[in-house]
Amino acid sequence: MVEELGEQSERPLSITDQLTSEYNTVFNNKDLIEPDTIVDEDRIVGRDEQLNRVINIIKPALHGDQPEDMLLRGPSGTGKTLIAGTVATKAIKIGASRDVQMEFVEVNGKHKKSEHEAIHQITHAFERELDLEYTSKTGVSTSSRYDRLFDIVDEYLDFGIVILDELDLLVGDSRNKDEPPAFSDILYKLSRAKRIGKMDSSFTLIVTTNSPNSLMSGLNSRTDSTFNPTEVSFADYNANELREILSHRRDAFYEDALDDDVIPYVAAVAAQGEGDARFAIDLLREAGNIANRREMQTVHKSHVEEAKNQVEKNYVVDVIENVSFQKQVSLFAAAVVNLYGQTELGRSDYLTEMSAPATVAHTLYNWITDHEDIEQRSKHSFLRWMRELDTYEVIELNRKGRGNEMGVFAEYIFHNLSAEAMVETLADKDKRFANVLEDEELLKSVVQTNLKNF
DNA sequence: ACTCCACTGGAAATGAAGGCAG
DNA sequence: CTGCCTTCATTTCCAGTGGAGT
């Protein structure tokens, strides 16, 4: 606690000076283009049909009837979560004015590892919304987590809305193939609780997914018979819709802070990719940030061009920051090998430049963990983590051969975020990484010796 | 087609953390 | 406090895989 205060370093300008200096921004209301903002209904574009359907499905809740569960399907950034969240928020407001106690919570399957964790998160979110005392996560069976959840809904709510975002990603422990994925159990237990009438009150499930097929085929037969959602499809936005979406959020910026061609350009760039509205909005915001940093009054097309890189980088940085410490160490080791090993890497025929061979990266992992007194895990774990980071597209993993009867090896390539940026990001985040970098010459020679011996 | 070897991937085992009952 | 239980991360064991040169 006390340590946090001790970190102040000397600054050229006093804090007061800096805080009171002229504030230059192109943003009038930045909230409008923050990722998680739930916007007014009139800012929702090109999704009239979906909006109507979701509204009609939720509506019975306001009259004491049980709404259908919903499955919102479509690629990412097509407004699924936005619409679910917006309608839920509105419904809660209306409910409150009619003395119907409602609440909604949202969990994203992407960030959850297991059934237990997901249920805990839902329970925890309700506890927070309702100002209840938090109950602990570990040391308690999953089924008692469910019970706590049902108790809360029963006791404090007339109706709950649970949004399960990107649920197909919540596969849980994939060790046993015969076991259904985690989301199957979650859906089964939640929808069963309603049907069986465990509670006086009830809730509805809104599931969103990019790949409805893998979701529905992952359900086992029990779940299948209890979970029968109404499906609503969402398609990619086209450039026109993206343009309109962005125009509706134009007032995030000051009147003349946007060049005329900025919004069409952002829309075109985003439509070229995936038709992902989130990406479009991130891009617009980042372009604004860049203009601000340059202390310019207006955002230009060229800022968007620059922002493109930044946004893609941010996605990777976001992943590395949310990954466990051991995985960060592994990544750091691989990045260091890549960064300091260039000369050696270029020398060999079977090594790609800008890569790091797994074996050497692992040796460095061991070296770093020794050096910084970090707990050391097995090679197997190291390899698994790196594979995992490959599936997150943080790095690219290639399998290569070493030549005659020398076997194959894996090499890690840094595409989306350069090894240098990766090392910097991590060194920024944790002192121990920065420590390792201090002795640059030593580190360099360790890397190169190991590459030579490889 | 074969060989070598580092990696892969599944399954089972182990160990740690932490709440709960007695 | 002790023994027990659940979940989760990691380790251990083991049977493949596959790149590339012969």
From TrEMBL:
Entries under Gene3D superfamilies matching the protein: 1.10.8.60, P-loop containing nucleotide triphosphate hydrolases, Winged helix-like DNA-binding domain superfamily/Winged helix DNA-binding domain
Residues the entry annotates as binding ATP: 78-82, 237, 249
Pfam family, one: AAA
Domain AAA+ ATPase: residue ranges: 66-256
Record keywords: ATP-binding, DNA replication, Nucleotide-binding
Family of this protein: Belongs to the CDC6/cdc18 family.
Function description: Involved in regulation of DNA replication.
Protein name in UniProt: ORC1-type DNA replication protein
Organism: Haloarcula onubensis
